[in-house]
Write a structure and sequence with these properties.
This protein has 300 residues and is an alpha+beta fold. It has helices at 47-50, 56-69, 87-95, 107-112, 114-128, 133-146, 162-170, 174-182, 188-195, 201-208, 212-223, 228-236, 246-264, 281-299; strands at 31-37, 76-77, 83-85, 100-106. Among the domains are: 27-118, Alpha-Beta Complex (Conserved hypothetical protein from pyrococcus furiosus pfu- 392566-001, ParB domain), CATH 3.90.1530.10; 131-182, no CATH class; 186-236, no CATH class. The protein is 52% helix and 6% strand. The model is unreliable at 4-26 and 149-160 (pLDDT under 50).
Length: 300
């Protein structure tokens, strides 16, 4: 069923992100407003990586508002149909059975290039959405890479670095924002659990400080359906330094051996020239005995 076009008033395309006049195409308007088949729209490549979809109850509320009041702010797209702004509005329209939606086609952004497009994409989410801490961290990291601070909505007169400006916008300290970013060094399963509020950010941050084997083991258990808080708590409270689960201990040991093989495998001949090698003999001999026991235990 097609949507009711009477609810889609033609609007002049305005944006908080002004494109320099030098980028406007000579033979066509910098922006055009026109109806597009929803089936021909596609999400921005970083949408799923950076932002969560609205929960179903919020999406339903958005759909009800659009159904009642019409589409007040058309989504913005590139000429090839890539969404820059309005991913959730498109989802809401689809839930209403719409097959066509009015959009603003941003020829100007397409002409400026991928960086300008991504800045506009991030800016829209910063301006419109109540972001989770993990999403704020992702925006911060990407904006640091893009390094064009004035484009995403802050006044050029504002002082201070990007971290403090973004922290101020979301009512947190710059130090807190840095802690959020640390969580981005954890496996995706841990980040997703934090984004869903199944794992407190402070615990997710602590996961970033664990060794790689522990991080990977945590991610695997979360992916297998175990409660994130319960899993992470086990690894954060290993008082004697030992893994609580023997399979995790074996995984950590095997991963350490794999790293050692990569690091030392081609350099064994150099060991005789190294000082202090004898200091490690007892540990190495004990390790050989442990490996023999492990192999024997697995074989039986």
């Amino acid at each position: 069923m097609s949507n009711n076009n009477s609810k889609l008033p033609r609007r002049s395309a305005e944006s908080k992100i002004a494109a320099p006049a030098s980028y406007a195409l000579a033979d066509q308007p910098s922006r055009t407003t026109e109806p597009w088949p929803i089936a021909e729209l596609k999400p921005h490549p970083k949408q799923a990586e950076m932002f969560l979809d609205l929960p179903e109850h919020e999406l339903q509320r958005l759909a009800e508002n659009i159904d009642k009041n019409g589409l007040e702010n058309p989504p913005e797209i590139l000429p090839d149909g890539t969404l820059i702004k309005g991913h959730q509005r498109v989802r809401a329209a689809q839930s209403l059975g719409w097959t066509e939606i009015e959009v603003i086609v941003r020829h100007d952004l397409a002409e400026q290039g991928e960086a300008a497009v991504e800045e506009a994409f991030i800016c829209d989410n910063l301006d419109r959405r109540q972001l989770q801490p993990i999403e704020i961290a992702r925006c911060y990291r990407r904006l640091k890479v893009l390094e064009r601070k004035s484009v995403w909505g802050l006044s050029q007169k504002e002082k201070g670095d990007l971290r403090d400006q973004l922290a101020k916008r979301f009512g947190v300290s710059g130090r807190t924002l840095d802690r959020y970013v640390r969580v981005l060094d954890t496996p995706q399963a841990v980040q997703d659990a934090a984004a869903r509020n199944e794992l407190p950010m402070i615990m997710a941050e602590q996961v970033a400080g664990l060794d790689r084997a522990d991080r990977e083991a945590i991610a695997m258990r979360i992916q297998n359906g175990e409660p994130p808080k319960t899993v992470v708590r086990e690894y954060l409270h290993k008082g004697d330094g030992r893994h609580l689960r023997v399979e995790d201990a074996l995984s950590s040991f095997a991963n350490s051996l794999q790293r050692a093989q990569h690091d030392l495998g081609q350099r064994i001949g150099q060991l005789k020239r190294c000082q202090g090698v004898s200091d490690h003999l007892a540990v190495l001999q004990g390790g050989r005995g442990l490996i023999d026991q492990i192999l024997e235990g697995i074989a039986t």
